Amino acid sequence: MKRLYCISLAFAAILFLSPSIRAQKVQKSHVIGFYNLENLFDIYHDEGKNDYEYLPDGANQWTEVKYRKKLHNMAEVIRAMKDDNKVYHTILGVSEIENRNVLEDLVIQPEIADANFQIVHYDGPDRRGVDCALLYRPDQFTLLASRSIPFNFESSSIKFNLDSLEQIDFRTRDILEVRGTIDGEMLAFYVTHLPSRIGGKSGDLRSRGAEIIHENAMKLMREYPGIKIAVMGDMNDNPTDISMVTYLHGKETIEEVGQEDFFNPFLSMIKAGFGSLAYQGVWSIFDIIMVNRNLANPEKGTFGINPIVNRKFYGRVFQKPFMTQQEGQYKGTPKRTSSNGAFINGYSDHYPTYIVISKK
Fold it and tell me: Would 2 be classed as within a structural domain?
């Protein structure tokens, strides 16, 4: 009896000393998503960054009132996804955020404060100051490690349009790598915003960004056999483009996915007419999430990706009427923050995307 009493005391002490153990809740399904927040800037200048258009006296006359409306709108979309799925995202990658401060302001918005989102963010070299980041729920995801991976031109297979001096001067967003566990299984997430299409000759840069992600993901798989990996971001390319197909080894079906490949659910979706953004009347899916073989074809009893749209498509482009322009020239497209330089209290020029994983 005395031995039983001591064991009970020891168990109670472990629970008392380990709040993370008490906080962890077993959840059947987990939403893994990405959202380009379209220029989530605060109203203050960040030293060394070209953020002047998002200051009160800048081109966008970016005031505290507009900033607070923008935060509310972003939170409203995240909450709407929660209402649809009955749970908040376990993992939500984001892009076009100015700094950690704007994310700290976002996660305490009343619409989503109860998610208790935590933040992984690093300041990057982008000249405008926009970065990628990751929000996660600590009751579902245990953070183990993270790092910021810089862009480089060290490729043996890509011929670059920029000369050596232009390469030295080039700046773009870093790639975020986050590793942790969900219900005891190790997963890693890459969040990226590949170089812009402005100029029309930057496909090589996006291919190199995809190549960097693939190189690091393969290294992680060798270091941690069995690890599940999801790559997400605003790729500035469609699932059918060379960066996604050749350099990130994206495959349309699970059956095609080899050990060094990724299953890209949005490849079949773009062919079926889905889109996450529209430009000059043409729809694209730049907001892509893809998973490695371990998530696409999991062992029994482990996490794998689920079909979620008509039990056919494994990804979802999330859109609601309130997020969509209801009239005018851009009717039917994502309702962005500003139009023709005027603030219209919109959301983003991108719809968010997500996948769902659960134990198989």
Answer: no
59 is a domain residue: yes
Strand partners, 133: 94, 121
pLDDT tens track for 23-61: 567 899 999 999 999 999 999 999 999 999 999 999 999
What is the number of other CB atoms lying within 10 angstroms of the CB of residue 98?
23
User: 3-state SS of 168-202?
Assistant: HHCCCCCEEEEEEEECCEEEEEEEEECCCCCCCCC
User: Which of 258, 182, 172, 272 is CA-nearest to residue 214?
Assistant: 258
How many separate domains does the chain show? 1
196-229 confidence digits (pLDDT tens): 998 777 899 999 999 999 999 999 999 999 999 9
> pLDDT digits over 250-269, tens only?
999 999 999 999 999 999 99
Distance CA 360, CA 356 (A): 12
Q: Tokens 């030293």 identify what position?
A: 47
Confidence (pTM):
0.93
pLDDT at 201: 76
Print the domain residue range for 264: 24-359
DSSP letter at 87?
S
From residue 67, how far is each of 51, 229, 321, 336, 337 by CA, in Å?
14, 34, 22, 14, 10
- Domain CATH code at residue 203: 3.60.10.10
Residue 256, domain member (yes or no): yes
- The first and second tokens of residue 322, run together, are 């309130």
Residues 6+ apart with CB under 8 A from 271: 240
